[in-house]
Amino acid sequence: MDRLIQAGLTGGIASGKTTAAATLAALGAHVMDTDELARRALDPGTPAFEAAVRAFGREILKADGTIDRERLGDIVFADARQRQRLNDIVHPEVRAAWQGELIELKRAGWRGVVAVVIPLLYEVGVQDWFDAVIVVGCAEATQRQRLRARGLTEAQAGARIAAQSPLAAKMERADFVAWNECPLAVLEQQMTRIWKRLESLPPAGGNISK
Ligand code: ATP
Predict the structure, then answer these.
(1) Residue 137 and residue 117: Cα distance in Å, rounded?
(2) What is the Cα–Cα distance from 160 to 122, expressed in whole angstroms?
(3) pLDDT band at residue 206, thresholds of 50, 70 and 90?
(4) Which 3-state string (H, E, C) describes 83-137?
(5) How many other CB atoms are found less than 10 A from the CB of residue 62?
(6) What residue owns the CA closest to ligand 1's atom 14?
């Protein structure tokens, strides 16, 4: 491939975005995980860390001085306004890190697929920044089951699912859908097909990857 294709990868919470992205990485994509960028943005000493402590108080800190992410999650997933406050702090940092990495890739002459995992891709409205958007979906019962397996309570799982726009609506808007109600090998097959389609996308205009 002679150009950089930027694909957005989204879905619902615990629908399998990270797992799907791993297949793209194995096929040769450069994967950026904005969840990871958001986590790093809140590391102690960063501007977003300071802003979050100012906004939510020192009670979001653990004894070791780092942010208690489960506690912060409980606060923001219980209240849309608090969630907006946190997003206003973290999202600009994530965008800056993402764009910085993209500029580096271009500078290094990267050719091929860059897959950006963004849980709230449609909610924040960045779909037009991509050559294509992939949505990884699954049944809500499966999301709950996977969140419970991570140790969340039924109430915590429900609040986190309710904080996102419905998965069915995301799938309707997607360029590509992977339906992750299947063994991992079948998800890999679906992602491999999507990968091939991405590689053969015609050059398109109007987004930041050009
Ligand atoms: P989050 O929204 O929390 O970032 P995610 O959408 O990235 O989650 P994953 O972390 O990929 O989701 O998957 C959630 C959990 O479900 C993981 O433990 C993963 O191993 C498991 N999982 C994902 N897909 C499958 C599958 N097809 N079969 C079995 N387990 C799966």
Answers:
(1) 14
(2) 16
(3) very low
(4) HHHHHHHHHHHHHHHHHHHHHHHHHCCCCEEEEEECCCHHHHCCHHHCCEEEEEE
(5) 11
(6) 14
Residue 168 parent element (H or E)? helix 167-173
Prediction pTM value: 0.90
User: Rounded to 5 degrees, what angle do the CA atoms 11, 14, 18 make?
Assistant: 75
What φ, ψ does residue 177 adopt, rounded to 5°? Answer: -120, 135
What are the tokens at 130? Answer: 């991509």
Nearest CA to ligand 1 atom 22: 16
CA-to-CA separations, 76 to 96, 115, 167, 199, in angstroms, rounded: 23, 27, 20, 38
Structure tokens belonging to residue 88: 């206003």
Contact 29, 131 (CB under 8 A): no
Distance between start and end Cα atoms, the chain: 14
Best residue for ligand 1 mutational test, from 9, 18, 180 (most atoms within 8 Å of Cβ): 18
Q: At what angle do helices 80-107 and 47-56 cross, to 10 degrees?
A: 180
Q: Ligand 1, residue 11: give the atom nearest the CA.
A: 6
3 state SS of 65: coil
The amino acid present at 100, given as its one-letter code, is G
Instruction: Name the residue of 146, 170, 180, 181 whose CB sits within 8 Å of the most ligand 1 atoms, as the mutation to test its pocket.
Output: 146
For the stretch 65-107, pLDDT in tens is 999 999 999 999 999 999 999 999 999 999 999 999 999 999 9
Domains detected in the chain: 4-38+94-199 (3.40.50.300)
